[in-house]
Each structure stands twice: as structure tokens, then as C-alpha cells.
Amino acid sequence: MKKFTGAQIVIESLIAEGVEVIFGYPGGAILPTYDALLDSKIKHVLVRHEQGATHMAEGYARVSGRPGVVIVTSGPGATNAVTGIADAYMDSTPMVVLSGQVPTSLIGNDAFQEADFVGITRPCTKHNFLVKNVKDIARTIKEAFYIAGTGRPGPVVVDLPRDVQQAEHTFKYPDKVELRGYKPTIRGNPRQIERAIVAIEHSQRPLFYVGGGVQWSGAAAELRELARGLGIPVTETLMGLGSMNASDPLRLGMLGMHGSYGTNTAVVNTDCLVAIGARFDDRVTGRIADFAPKAETIIHIDIDPSSISKNVEVDIPIVGDIKSVLTDMLTTIKGRESIAKRRGDWAVWHQQILKWHKDKPLYENGRHGRLDGRVSPKQVLAELYEITGGDCILATDVGQHQMWAAQMFPFENPRSWLTSGGLGTMGYGFPAGIGAKFAAPDKRVVVISGDGSIQMNIQELGTAVEYNIDVKVIIMNNYFLGMVRQWQEKFYYERYSYSAMSVPNFVKLADAYGAHGFRIEQAKDVAKTLREAFATPGPVLIDIVIPADEVVMPMIPPGGAMSEMLFA
Fold this sequence. Notes:
Mean pLDDT: 96
CATH topology of the largest domain: Rossmann fold
CATH architecture of the largest domain: 3-Layer(aba) Sandwich
Shape: globular
Number of helices: 23
CATH superfamily of the largest domain: Thiamin diphosphate (ThDP)-binding fold, Pyr/PP domains
Largest sheet: 6 strands, parallel
Strand content: 15-25%
Radius of gyration: 24 Å
């Protein structure tokens, strides 16, 4: 029987798994696998930094729904990938990271470019493997993809010593995976689903609180059908945006630290909160003791049992895949007259929320409404929507620009919003946008960044140029670390400690990389220059100067409750 090297088995396993593209950077310990990769049909994207590779894989996964794949070398190549792995872990993004390692005989000897990658990533991976025998490679890779993509998705590391890559063995890819102790629950308990329906039925002010789990489950259609069938309003977390159509009257927008007044006031007043694929993180809840204080019943639907009652004690837990549970809920309420009779009460509740929205709309007045010729973020986002019609994949970095986009850009579709939520990683957006383009080459991809964030992984402009990635990058440039400055203004007596920064000439920088650059300094130039930039093929940087004193409002102060929002 024909024998393959371990490196060839790695590549054959990836092909058997249906992998079409991987993001990586070669080095000594992973060279055997890179040599085998050269003869395969898998597309390899050569990044400029391993962190960029992990974020590209995240963007690819978020758009395609399949695990993104990363390949790096040992030591610093592996440790450079840790930030992206931790980011994927926090945001439940499926990823398989293949890392080279020093030969097994040298592990633990402080060999050149050795790092205990399994030990380092143990706290921030769903699982990790150190492969010590060539015969285990195919099975391990099969298990890695299964673990990464099932249950609550997440990153998995496969560490491959160089001698294991060079050893030989026969190749047979497993047909299925059997892992003792890992059996994700797919179907929700019917009795718990019935309890949840009864609790909703008896409530006066029910509210759906939706997180990123809805999109990972592919359950946006079921959510929309359930919400519309019941007439119950829906609020989304930062990671859940796009689950409901922005144009749907039942969609309230984002809740939490930078949620709107109407949405957060709805959470304060609901008597039945239904959390779907959300984890009650601190940026949503504010002061936990005062979160949803009038809720007589809190229902939590999640595939991860460890998330249930982790932060907020819930009354009716339902463990299962979101799509499966919502499908069962739709079946349960079908033809249920008692539910139909409640729609009138729930319509009154919905109108009350809309009135709260009208009382204090987002950015109706204040700094965003300036007419002094300077550019406001609201104007940029409005013009972006005019150009795209909302039909684009929008990736952001982390900071003020991220929150403005989340608050003001209307997302009509799932998997159209890429951002770093749990870890809050500056430098995420640009490489994630590149990865998204590989997943959906026919979709328009736009990145919104800040002058601080974009410089975290600006080197990936080289990757975008090399592969001619048609991605448009809008830099909201205020010459500050904007969110840091905002906190210093509000909570540190305007003591701006090291938050101002000088920036390069982004137009010249784009030109140096072989891309195109544009700069906008006045409000009167926004529409014309943005349209020109978007009509330019290939990667484009658009440097837009915005005032340093623009702030993201409303805002729940640190340690505050939803009822204690700041508005200026």
C-alpha cells in the first residue's frame, strides 16, 4: 500500500475535509507541509503577519459558515497567531490552526523557535492536539474540524512536530468521528420548550434578545418567522446584528453599553426576556444586579450548557442548536389560539418601545448634527449606505468607528457584519475583510477602521495588493485613540494621557504598497470622493478626517445599569 509523508497526509486530509483556501506564513518547522502544499489544489494566501492570517480565517469562517484554516510555523510564528485564536474563541468562530513544532526529540529542550503552543493556547482554544505519531495525523485533523464546527464553534490547534511531518504512513481519512465526552445537544428538551412558550404566552411585555449564536446556527429565517408570527420585538447584541432585517419594524437595534435609549429601556421594562444564542456579557448587561429588573421570567436558549446561568440566573434553560429549537417552537405555537389572543397586548408594548425610540433617537442632535463643514461619522455611514444600498459585507476594527457602524448602518442580512466582540481586537477588521472576500468573491466588502486600529495590521495591504482583493477601507481618522479619548473625557477629567497619535500619510502609504489612496477633510467632499474611491478597482484606502471630540452616545458608564445611560 502506498505510503505518504506526514506532511502529505496533512494536505490530503484538508482536501478530504473540503478545504479550498488556507491562510499562512512558512517557516522552518512547517516547511515539510508547505512543500506538500505546493503540489495540491488548495489555494494558499501568503499573509504578512500570522495575526493577519488568523483574522482572515475568522472573516472567511464568519461569511462562509465553515472553519477557517491557518498554517504557521513554530515559536514566534505560533505565538503571533495567539491573539486571533483568542479572538475566535471569544466570538465562537470555527478555526483550525496547523502549527509546526520542533522535532519530538527536542521538545522541552528550549530548541530554536520552540514554544509550548499547546500549553499557551489551552485557555483560548476549544481543544488542541500535539501529534506525536504520523499514524494519528488524519484522525486528529478529522477530529479538529469536527470539534471546531460543531456545538458552540471555536478554534482548534493541531501542533505538528517536524519529524512527524517527515515520517511515512498509509493514508485513510476517517468517515466519522466518535469522541467520548463530546456529544453536543442538538434537540432542545420538549418540556422546556413548552414551558418557554407558556411563559411567553402569559407575559405582557416579552422581548427577544438575540446573539451571534443565531447566525452560527443558520437560524435567522426561523428567528424572523417566530418574531413576526408572535409580533414580539427583537433586540440584537453586537455579534447578532443582521439576524433581523434592519427594515423590520420589530427590529429594535443593538442593546447594551452603546445601545439606543428605546432598546435599553425595553430591556429594563420587559417582563419576559428570551435570550437566544447570547451569553449575557458585561457590555450587554451593565450592572448585573439591575439587569432586566422587571423580568419575571428569563429564558435562555443556547447550544453551550456552560453559558446557561453563567452570568445571569435564568428561569427556563433550553440547551440545543438554535435552529432546531426555534423550529420546534414554531411547531409548538402553530394554531395555538391562546398565543394569537396575546398579539394585541404585545402590539401595545411594541408601540411603547417605538415611542421611547422617538423620544430619544440616536444622533438626532449634538455633535453628530454639526454644520460647520467638518465630516461627521453619521454622514460617512449614510453615504456608504447610499453607495452600497446596504448590500455589502461590512468589517470593522474596534473603537468608536465600530460602535457608530453598529448603531447606524442598517444590516438586512446575516453574515454581513464582521467585528471583534468579546476580545475587542484592534487590527481585526482589515484582514477579516480580506478573508471575507475569499469566502464570497462576488460580494462587495467594506472595512471601517480608525487611525489607531488600521495600523495594527496595515501590513496586510501587501496581501490585498498581491491577490488583488477588491476591498474598500474607510479610515475614520481623528488623530486619537478615539474610544480611549472618550473615556478620558468622561471619566478621567479630560486628562488625555497618551491617547493622541501621529499617523502616516495614508494616501502615500497606499501608493507605496501599490494600492489606491484618497483623503477627505471636508463634509462637502464626502459624497464625490467616496463614489470615486468605490469606483476604483482593487484595494483602496480612504482617509477621512473627523473631529476628535466626536463621541459614541448613548453610553452606560462603567459599573452602571441600563437605566443610567449618558447622552452627552
